[in-house]
Task: structure prediction
Amino acid sequence: MSLRAKTVIVIAIAAVIVVGVVFAISQFIFMRSFQSLENTNTNLAVQQVTSALSDSINSLNKLNHDWAAWDDSYNFVQNPSKKYTIHRS
Result:
């Protein structure tokens, strides 16, 4: 085997080792940090969506409660023989 071929093989092996070391460092150090950051951001986003959904449900419950009195009024107008009561809580 010529000196040129041996040199190319050594350089190729060294390049593969360097790429492997860089990959390992990025995988074990940087990617763990990014994964932790991504988990934190995801948890925050889920909390925001949960809060927004809860606010919407509370608004609908309040609106439903406000309009419930009108159901009794409507029923009384349709059938005046019933006793007219408004349920409040």
User: Anything to note?
Assistant: Helices lie at 3-78.
